[in-house]
Amino acid sequence: MLKIPCTSLLIFLLIVPCKTFAQSSYNSNFDFLNSFASPNELGMAGAVSTLPSQSSMAAWYNPALLGYTPTRSLVVSLSPNNQAFFNDLSYSNYSVRYQNSIVKKNRTFDWGISLAYANEDFGVLQVTTIDQPEGTGETLPLFSSVSLLSSGISTSFFTGIRVSIGYSLKWYSNNWITFDFDRLLHDFGLITDLSLFDFLGLRIFDSSFLKMDINYRLGYSIHNVGKSYSYNTEFYNFQDEIENNYIVYAMPQLAKLGQSLTLSVTHQAIEVFAVDISRDIFDLQQKNNQQTQSIFSSDISLTRNFFNGKPDLKIETSTGLRFHFLETFSISYGKREFANEWVTINDSDYIYTTYYSKSTYKGFQFHLDGLKKAYLDKQFPSIKPYSLSITYSALVEESNTYSYLKNPTFWGIDLYYRF
Predict the structure, then answer these.
(1) Taking the CA of residue 131 as centre, how many other CA atoms within 13 Å lie in the half-sphere pointing to its CB?
(2) Tens-place pLDDT, residues 258-271
(3) 112 touches 100 (CB < 8 A)
(4) 369-390 pLDDT, tens digit each
(5) In the list 116, 119, 315, 399, which could disulfide-bond 95, CB 3.0-4.6 Å?
(6) CA–CA gap between residue 179 and residue 321 (Å, rounded)
């Protein structure tokens, strides 16, 4: 029996020794690449890297999530013009996801692919010249955008243990930092899933009336692996003396460890109740370190940070809780904790002060599946393959932030077709 979990853990750790390198310093202008930009996930403060869902934006958080949802289905998600932190800043995302399964050599593989587009809109910039300092009448739209092509596949290696891997190819565009900046980036993900009752061979909770499942998952993902960005400081009239007049910025590479626990109770193919508890630990070493290092190296302590960790300048944490009722309503709560360093100058001396921030999120989702299974599918068989969900989420409270920031609100609609 001991060989089974050890083998699963070995598979999970195989990715760690691989070598890819981050370079030079960090530019906060690229933080959109690590934002929580979708309503289904925002309600849990983005702590969803190991939490399976039908969301077509799941690969943004971990591409290995596309190895879940084995039913053959197509999901289209629309989430336009979400209000963000500033009056002139909004987020939009549009995505599509396809899921299927195949059988090879008596083994079932669940796989999925998704295509997503996320946009951060800063409004427009008035074009001015020396001769026309009040403006020429021309405007330039300011935005950041990401196009994401992802795939994932999973299979069971032992009874009750499933392993999923995933990969995403990103095309990042930004026209407000350097005007027409583009970069090709990569994400990698891995999730191991333990179905407790199946693994232990327990059937006492598996009856014709009620069925209970408990799943524990452990995941690891790497985000935004790609070539660094450099520009000539002479063009920007910087006064700092930098070797060869160039400054180099690494893309905001991020290592993420996640865990989640799901308890569900099912009655006659309808999920009566379920609760998800999840926690993600973000390793900021990759994002902030100005020295070259392997993106797979991490000083994250599982025992310290997964269960009772306090964020610091190297660690950011997100914790989420979600309740599901009758496959119809879901209520989500999330908390994000992080530390920042404030720099002040006093008589040419730099004074560094560390302060801690906490953001609280909430979310609500209405899903048609429960009502369809209980009533509509029987009365209207032609609509059986179709379903939809509507999601709303918002940042409720944020401590230690500026007063001019407003709380963002996100909403979206997902359309489903099951073949």
Answers:
(1) 2
(2) 899 999 988 777 88
(3) yes
(4) 888 888 888 888 898 899 999 9
(5) 116
(6) 40
| pLDDT tens per residue, range 101-134 | 998 888 889 999 999 999 888 777 676 777 777 7
Q: How many residues does the chain have?
A: 419
Which of 221, 337, 320 lies closest to 279 in space, CA to CA?
A: 320
What pLDDT digit, counting tens, does each position of 225-254 carry? 887 766 554 444 444 444 455 556 667 788
- Whether 187 shows a pLDDT value over 60: the answer reads yes
How far lies 25's CA from each of 228, 246, 252, in Å?
9, 12, 9
**CB distance 44 to 361 below 8 Å:** yes
Closest CA to 316 of 13, 21, 3, 36: 36
Q: Are 69 and 110 in contact (CB under 8 A)?
A: yes
Instruction: Check: CB of residue 362 under 8 Å from CB of residue 335.
Output: no
Alpha helices in 206-334 (DSSP H): 285-288, 302-308
Return the closest-CA partner of residue 80 out of 66, 58, 95.
95
